[in-house]
Structures are given as structure tokens and as C-alpha cells.
Amino acid sequence: MLTSEKVMDRKYYLYNFFWGALIFFLAVYDFEQHSFRFSNEILIHPITLFINALLFPFSKCLVENIALRYTTKEFWETNALRTAAYNGGLILYCLFCFVFAIPLGIICMAILCIKRRRP
Hints:
mainly alpha
């Protein structure tokens, strides 16, 4: 049965954590290549990126659930969206989810906790 709501399970989390970890490693590598002096920023930046990588799947799940609340799954699976513009939009979407992973991830985890407490 297909539902219009994404469910956070182990497979979904690990798949999206892989992409969050990839963004994490690329950003840390780029940061290390361009940091010339030692400061507190050197420690804060990788720690924040690591937290973003951990919360990236939750952030993506929340954004997908919001999008699926107002559209259908069939809309996102049409061939019109499988173009070069779609791929560029997909990259921007993933970066948006990664940048806002901390607030969106915390909101998603709070929603999941509230849903699990309800009978």
C-alpha cells in the first residue's frame, strides 16, 4: 500500500545519511583546504557539519512529508520532472535540507515523538 507520507525507518535513514555524510566530507575537505589560521572556527565548523549530517535524513523526511501533503506521489514521478532542470533542482533541494538540517531535523524528531506517544 502506497501512502503519501514518508516513514522514517532504518533503510530510509541510512540511505539519506550516506548523502548527508558525503556532503559533510566534501564541506570539511573544502574548509580544511582554505583555512589558513587556527581558530575556534576550525572546531566548530566540522562539528556543526557532522550534526547536520546526522539530522539530514530527518530534515529531508520533513520536507518530503510537507510536499506530499499538498501534492501527490504521482506528480513527483512524472517524466516531465526527469530533466536536466530537475537534477539541478534536486541538488539545490538536498543542499537546502542539509543547511537547515538542525532546525528541521529537531522539528521532525519532535513530530515523530508526538506521533509515537499517541495511541
